């Protein structure tokens, strides 16, 4: 029987990023594939039957695959330069919870599946929770198949090269019917769990969030021969757009807006860019306010682009409404975890996508600094163990 910490230690060298720090485990790259293989071995070692469905979601079954099963799990892919816990903590805790239940001599009266969802972060193809969106039909299949990574490879091609049949990718009612209830354990990504209180919390809601691509086009030119007065430099407009994003969001209580990625084209030190692409992540509890926020940012972007002699486009890449987890399931979980506080989160999760279709809930484990999507993300060993124990209690109580 392995603890969560032992399980996480066994993958601590997979996908380390020597340049960014932390881990870069993008979906269907070698590190993520190695982690998927690790998951198969760990599941088989526990006597679980592993299958990969037509969307690349892995299911490890304790008991026969059946309708209405209890399903728990998370993801193994990461953001670029991410931490060790966002995703793997939920998978490792699910495996450890199975060990705990087996050690208790527990016989599940209905089947339990541990799942791994691909491309939860959207780090490679741009749309977060791609696996659960495909499974549920929350994303148009053709749109998903045509998503491209930075090399220009489509999701269809990459999925095909990794054993999936692109013709069968998309909504999967048979797999969906197998999810009676879904519970995802996840590292907390704020400071909602104080240092001295309980180590676990129950999730209440996920902030509505989306991603937009902003492209600013200007005149590519020579850095040495183009007079300052003669430029239409999209990088200068992009810099002002980044500031406008912050200022627009700062005026809106509870809003968060981030430009975390920006690509100059062609991208040379002595080249005035011809285009700059920026990706905007914006979040707010009220979807109507998010829409206003995006409109405000777009207007500001048009103004600064025009002043610089540039043009700008804004395209929505994905959007997820605010999610409130199933009240009945969350109440049952709160009853199984006495003293656990109830916390909202600003982070997206597969549980949030699934919540639109099946009763779903989340359990969060303390992250003392609240830092996440960063190498400094941290969960203490004793808190990880408390999380696995809490998950085991929840699974036993729900089964
Ligand atoms: C995923 O972690 C997200 O909130 O973007
Ligand atoms: Mn994440
Ligand atoms: Mn995550």
Automatic annotation (TrEMBL):
Signal peptide: none annotated. It is an enzyme of class 3 (hydrolase). It holds the Pfam family Peptidase_M20. The keyword Acetylation does not apply. It comes from the Bacteria. The keyword ATP-binding does not apply. Its EC number is 3.5.1.6, 3.5.1.87. Keywords: Hydrolase. InterPro entries: Amidase_Cbmase, Bact_exopeptidase_dim_dom, Peptidase_M20. One of its GO terms (molecular function) is N-carbamoyl-L-amino-acid hydrolase activity. Belongs to the peptidase M20 family. This is N-carbamoyl-L-amino-acid hydrolase.
